[in-house]
Model the fold of this input.
Amino acid sequence: MSGDLQFDSNKRLRHLLSIDGLDQKTILEILDTAETFISVGERQIRKVPLLRGKTVVNLFFEASTRTRTTFEIAAKRLSADVINFNIGASSTNKGETLLDTINNLEAMHTDLFIVRHIDAGAAYLVAKHAPSHVRIINAGDGRHAHPTQALLDAYTMRQYGKDFKKIKVAIVGDIMHSRVARSLIHILNILGVPDVRVIAPKTLLPVAIERLGAHPYFDMYEGLEGVDVIVMLRIQRERMQGALIPSEQEYFNLYGLTEEKLVVAQDDAIVMHPGPMNRGLEIDSSVADSDRATILPQVSNGIAVRMAVMALIMGGNQKNKGAEN
Amino acid sequence: MSGDLQFDSNKRLRHLLSIDGLDQKTILEILDTAETFISVGERQIRKVPLLRGKTVVNLFFEASTRTRTTFEIAAKRLSADVINFNIGASSTNKGETLLDTINNLEAMHTDLFIVRHIDAGAAYLVAKHAPSHVRIINAGDGRHAHPTQALLDAYTMRQYGKDFKKIKVAIVGDIMHSRVARSLIHILNILGVPDVRVIAPKTLLPVAIERLGAHPYFDMYEGLEGVDVIVMLRIQRERMQGALIPSEQEYFNLYGLTEEKLVVAQDDAIVMHPGPMNRGLEIDSSVADSDRATILPQVSNGIAVRMAVMALIMGGNQKNKGAEN
Amino acid sequence: MSGDLQFDSNKRLRHLLSIDGLDQKTILEILDTAETFISVGERQIRKVPLLRGKTVVNLFFEASTRTRTTFEIAAKRLSADVINFNIGASSTNKGETLLDTINNLEAMHTDLFIVRHIDAGAAYLVAKHAPSHVRIINAGDGRHAHPTQALLDAYTMRQYGKDFKKIKVAIVGDIMHSRVARSLIHILNILGVPDVRVIAPKTLLPVAIERLGAHPYFDMYEGLEGVDVIVMLRIQRERMQGALIPSEQEYFNLYGLTEEKLVVAQDDAIVMHPGPMNRGLEIDSSVADSDRATILPQVSNGIAVRMAVMALIMGGNQKNKGAEN
Done:
């Protein structure tokens, strides 16, 4: 649905709202561009002037210091000015509508909005009403999408030598409430991964999961059998209070990733997690701290992937910029 | 009262504390300077190096993410470093006096303070004790003044072709509690506007409003008759709880700006609002979203006007700077 | 204990965790470097490009807007990018461990962490697990240490012509709970100050204070006799509620610094305070505002000292940087 909005008339990426609607070519272009930024992170001087004079607004309606920080670092490495707009303290709770808030910020001649919102579709709504010079990146909207997370996960798989056309990937945990899972299933399908699995208790699995492009498993040993990549999701402890999860101990016994369960996967299988981890709940510390875990490389890759997305969607403006310097 | 403090011995603007005390020449110099910065906002690279190496401190004792953001963007476009000093989390609630807090920040060799405070006179107090190298801009103090808002409103009127010497302006709403209204009445009088009106229920009108330089009206149709500019003020919903306003519905019926009431104004009358708007309370959405509304241009102009004020009051330092480069 | 961690194999300063473990040469190198940065604060353009392209993370687990601001200003004057990571709003309260949070931030290719924590040893813990390219500065950990405060205090004494080898210094107030006192006693001993005194009621004095290197006094007139430097500590009003301090009035009568008590000190004795002050509790306003008080110079010096520490511990990287430009 957001596919049309995401591209301009020349089929260039304009906003990043969801993985759904992207094609393989665009995704690979982002991953390849990210690769060129990995070296920037390792250089002595980490800045490139691509977004100099541009204003990036971190528009977070849902608090997430960590995700905000990744976008802030990525934008600053591209030499942009960054404004952190904490919406809790602002005028939306003074009765102003979301669109009025956005229109106001756009009127300040800002260029790029990183939008995080508790409601699915918020970033889409913002993009739909944005003037032509403004770009939007969805940094997570409700249970809907978290496209930069899916991109950095795909980047990490490729970095660890996994060939999308051949691998088996298992996503484990609270699939139902997870925008990370939704975006990841999309990207793996677009990239041609032949076997995408989700492993969860029935209470945490959406009904039409097959139609989304993933095979459901209810047992870890069955689901992890022969996989090349395991993506552990964060369990919200709040779910324990409801009837969705029996108890922390029982959840860990059944679905927590331990070295014992890991044995059934491929010998070179990698273990991913979007963070922050609940050690001893969805993942055992011995696994989280092992060589198989790619959790910290995911974070590093996240900066490069976000730089790549920002650089690509601001690319149209870049060209004009050349003339002015 | 703050007039003396606002100028240095060479009659150059030194602090911006209130519109009261400024002369027409100074105001027009600010508006003309702002005009040169409008193009900066539309350029590909939005930075000018006027305040490079300077430190601007947003000293907000009263939370206002939106106003802080406008000053932060303006300062960054001038290449200043910006420090957001959230006073709620700081040492004034550790028993330190306001002046000790300010003295401390000044001792860090900061250059410009943007001060917002719930008490009238706070920015004046800070300016009175500031060392000679420090500049102060009042970003709103209690019910007293909000000079940059008045300046951007005047800028917007001129931009829309209104001739200050000829126009009728109506300010509508909670005049009593509004620093925006106070500063706006002052600037319109200084600029020679022949007919300044305020429209409000009696409970929201200060007694000596005539002496301030505005004619009171209690009826919208009478007050809007033939005006060229309408400035709608934000209604604080808290006033509803008290006896000051009967009910939202009744307030909207009597004082909310609708297309029906707008008919009595000039055909090319513009509708202004400082934001954030309460749609359906002080203004109808059909008016707010019409061609007549200048609400978003006001926001854009606000960046340029704040850049102009910063550049002008830091001007003395600018000269010296040339020598050093 | 943190001594080994603080230096690299070439005996260069690597982290600043506590004064304990530093030698006189290193401390004097920091003070001398700070002196070169004092002029930067007084220049028209206050930036030097030493940390350009570096990312400094203010990692404050304990709120302190003022201290954070001093580090933020210092880092920006060195041209670093600064990320303020407010840990209250972040994932540690989502159950993530401190080390996971740090590891994540480090994976973002950040360079320098300014760590403030309510627990003694937190900065040490972070440094112990940091990868080789990351540097740590302790900005206060529990009652343990506040090394940059001690350095700026030493800097200020020297600036006011005090010869470390000859002076008498009295530290007055809540020695027991003060990391400032601990770090200051250390630095004065390392610098060879022959007479370091602490003055406090017995309830606010640690038992083994002599072993720490300070002589205890319980009476102000005895303790201040002939001293060259008086360092007043901030009294936490919370202590009043407990049995530690009788009442504000009684505390002020016995231990508050007044002009009357000051008479017994040297004629050119200076009065220091780390801020924020409780006027009328630990210090009389007439003393705080007198020529003897060096409270605001301490703040200015704090910026220069923090710039010096950052520049020195990042120095190893600086060398490589030259090649790249």
About this structure: Confidence is low (pLDDT under 50) at residues 316-325 of chain C. The longest strand of chain C covers residues 135-141.
